[in-house]
């Protein structure tokens, strides 16, 4: 009798995954996890050399075919070229991960320029839509086709000092829910609402050392900030057969959220 393997549904053998922003941090962890589960992976990143370097390390670790390509997801020609290169290398795309996203802090949210608001939307929202459109013909031919997005808790609980990013991530939630209904029974689409995962991106976003220290010690149910691997594990579940009954969802991965108590400690 064949032994039951409860982990077989988490395997990604036969899948081709395209991961944007995959050269570092959360994106790199997702690419590594998918490759370790058997997928062939294309890492797309603004820094093409960094994407190729990350791909080489992951390929050696996992034994999977992993490659890197330069791509500015705010430029439609780059998106088309990235998808074309992925299809040329691997024969298709079955798994799209829209991981690219970034925002910065503002002292006065009402002073944010129109240009900053629009650019945040281009990077965090519109890029995911354009990438989905470019991949759609290939996803429709794939088995267990999925699009999984890196969202943020500020998309449902806005941070006023990150107002442009918060608004763009809120738009991403609605955009992807609409596409999940539009592509129902053909492509599963979900978004992971990510809590605090400390990376060098926080410093680049304008948070000083004191703010980063506070974020590293959150008052959540688990008592710690997240790691890129915490997030990657959720992406693996949603993209693999293990998540085949999950679509049109925003899944919160954030350490359980803030503890609520009325009596001070």
UniProtKB/TrEMBL annotation:
SUPFAM superfamilies: NAD(P)-binding Rossmann-fold domains
Pfam (any one): adh_short_C2
Tagged with keyword DNA-binding: no
Record keywords: Oxidoreductase
Entry's Gene Ontology molecular function annotations: oxidoreductase activity
Similarity section: Belongs to the short-chain dehydrogenases/reductases (SDR) family.
Name by which UniProt lists this protein: SDR family oxidoreductase
Annotated source species: Microvirga mediterraneensis
UniProt lineage: Bacteria, Pseudomonadati, Pseudomonadota, Alphaproteobacteria, Hyphomicrobiales
């Amino acid at each position: 009798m064949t032994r039951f393997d409860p982990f077989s549904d988490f395997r990604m053998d036969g899948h081709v995954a395209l991961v944007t922003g995959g050269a570092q941090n959360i994106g790199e962890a997702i690419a590594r996890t998918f490759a370790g589960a058997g997928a062939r992976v294309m890492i797309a990143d603004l820094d093409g050399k960094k994407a190729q370097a990350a791909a080489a390390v992951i390929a050696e670790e996992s034994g999977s075919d992993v490659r890197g390509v330069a791509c500015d997801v705010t430029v439609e020609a780059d998106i088309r070229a990235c998808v074309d290169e992925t299809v040329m290398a691997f024969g298709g795309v079955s798994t799209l991960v829209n991981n690219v996203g970034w925002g910065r802090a503002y002292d006065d949210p009402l002073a944010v320029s129109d240009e900053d608001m629009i650019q945040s939307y281009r990077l965090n929202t519109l890029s995911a839509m354009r990438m989905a459109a470019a991949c759609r013909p290939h996803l429709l031919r794939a088995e267990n086709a999925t699009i999984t997005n890196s969202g943020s808790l500020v998309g449902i609980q806005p941070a006023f000092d990150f107002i442009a990013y918060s608004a763009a991530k809120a738009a991403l939630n609605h955009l992807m829910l609409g596409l999940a209904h539009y592509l129902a029974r053909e492509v599963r689409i979900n978004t992971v609402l990510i809590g605090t995962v400390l990376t060098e991106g926080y410093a680049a976003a304008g948070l000083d050392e004191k703010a980063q220290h506070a974020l590293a010690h959150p008052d959540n149910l688990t008592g710690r900030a997240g790691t890129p691997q915490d997030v990657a594990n959720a992406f693996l579940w949603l993209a693999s057969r293990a998540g085949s009954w999950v679509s049109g969802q925003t899944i919160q991965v954030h350490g359980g959220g803030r503890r609520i108590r009325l009596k001070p400690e």
